C-alpha cells in the first residue's frame, strides 16, 4: 500500500493498484477500468489488465473517447457505476467475477474487476474494499492538490508535472496534441464594473462551458486570473480549430447574469516532441496575443499565422536554463 500510494500520476497509480491486488488475491485476472464523462455519458476505458498466464494488456487507446463503450451497455457496469455498489456475477466461461467501484468525491472514477475462479470469499472482498477506500482517500488528496479551488479545473502545477507525458506521446507520431490558451476579453472591466463576486461567477460559468465543449479525455486547466489552458490530444489541425471555435461561440452566445455578453480570445499551437512547457505555451500565447490585438472574440493558430507571415517564429527556450 505504501508503494502504491507513493504515485501521483494516475496511470502509474492504476498499474500499482492492479499489481497490488494481483499479488494479494492471486486471481485469474485483475482489470482496472477508468470511467470517463463524455458529454454527460459515463464511458468505460481499460487502463491495465493482468492475467495469471502472464498476459498483460495496457491502456485501451481510441482516437475519440466517444468510441469507448458506455457504462450502460453492460448491466454489471451500470450497477457498479450508477449505484456505486459492488457487483458479483458469472462470466460466459463460467468463472466468477467481482466489480468494485473506485469512488471519487461524487461519482465513480473507475472499476476494479477481479476474476477469481470460484469467486472471492467474504474476507477477501472485505480487504479489497478496504484497499480501495485507502486509494480513494489518496485520489481525493491528489485532486485537492491538483485542482483550482474556484473552478475545479486542473491547476498550473499539474500541467507542468504532466507535460513530459504529453511530449512523449507527441514523439510517437499519429494525430498531434494541441495546447490552447483562453483569455476572457476585458475581464478587468467586468471586475471594475460589477465587482469581484460577479467576476468569479463569470470564471465559474466559463469553466462550465469549457467542460461542455470538450471531450472527457481533454485536459482543462486554470492558470490563474482569467486565463485557462486546454490540452487536446489526438486531434487534426482542423479538428482542433473546430473544437476551440466551439468554445468561443458557446461563450459568446451565453447570457451571463448581470454582466450580459462575455467573449474570449484563444490562441493554440501544436505540441512538439522536443518542447519544454514554456516553448509550447509561448507559441500558443503568441497566437493569443495576435487574437487580442486584432479584434478579440476569435481563435488563432500559431502555425497558420506563421504560414501567412503574420507572426515571426519565436526563439525556442531550452528545458535547461543557465543563470
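Sequence proposed for the structure above (323 residues):
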Amino acid at each position: 500500500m505504501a508503494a502504491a500510494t507513493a504515485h501521483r500520476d494516475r496511470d502509474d497509480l492504476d498499474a500499482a493498484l492492479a499489481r497490488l491486488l494481483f499479488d494479494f488475491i492471486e486471481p485469474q485476472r485483475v482489470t482496472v477500468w477508468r470511467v470517463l464523462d463524455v458529454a454527460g455519458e459515463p464511458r468505460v476505458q481499460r487502463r491495465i489488465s493482468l492475467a495469471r498466464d502472464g498476459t498483460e494488456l495496457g491502456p485501451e487507446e481510441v482516437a475519440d473517447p466517444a468510441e469507448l463503450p458506455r457504462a450502460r451497455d453492460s448491466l454489471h457496469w451500470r450497477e457498479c457505476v450508477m449505484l456505486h455498489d459492488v457487483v458479483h456475477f458469472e462470466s460466459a466461461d463460467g468463472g466468477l467475477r467481482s466489480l468494485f467501484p473506485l469512488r471519487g468525491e461524487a461519482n465513480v472514477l473507475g472499476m476494479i474487476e477481479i476474476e477469481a475462479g470460484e469467486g472471492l470469499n467474504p474476507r477477501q472482498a472485505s480487504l479489497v474494499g478496504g484497499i480501495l477506500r485507502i486509494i480513494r482517500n489518496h485520489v481525493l488528496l491528489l485532486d485537492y492538490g491538483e485542482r483550482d479551488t474556484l473552478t475545479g479545473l486542473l491547476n498550473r502545477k499539474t500541467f507542468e508535472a504532466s507535460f513530459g507525458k504529453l511530449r512523449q506521446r507527441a514523439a510517437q507520431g499519429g494525430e498531434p496534441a494541441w495546447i490552447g490558451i483562453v483569455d476572457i476579453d476585458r475581464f478587468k472591466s467586468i471586475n471594475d464594473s460589477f465587482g469581484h463576486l460577479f467576476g468569479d461567477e463569470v470564471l465559474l460559468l466559463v469553466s462550465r462551458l469549457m467542460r461542455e465543449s470538450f471531450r472527457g479525455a481533454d485536459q482543462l486547466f486554470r492558470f490563474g486570473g482569467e486565463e485557462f489552458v486546454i490540452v487536446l490530444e489526438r486531434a487534426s489541425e482542423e479538428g482542433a480549430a473546430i473544437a476551440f471555435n466551439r468554445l468561443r461561440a458557446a461563450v459568446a452566445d451565453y447570457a451571463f447574469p448581470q454582466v450580459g455578453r462575455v467573449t474570449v480570445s484563444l490562441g493554440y499551437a501544436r505540441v512538439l516532441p522536443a518542447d519544454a512547457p514554456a516553448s509550447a505555451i509561448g507559441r500558443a500565447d503568441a497566437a493569443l496575443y495576435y487574437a487580442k490585438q486584432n479584434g478579440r472574440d476569435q481563435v488563432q493558430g500559431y502555425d497558420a499565422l506563421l504560414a501567412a507571415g503574420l507572426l515571426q517564429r519565436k526563439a525556442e527556450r531550452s528545458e535547461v536554463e543557465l543563470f
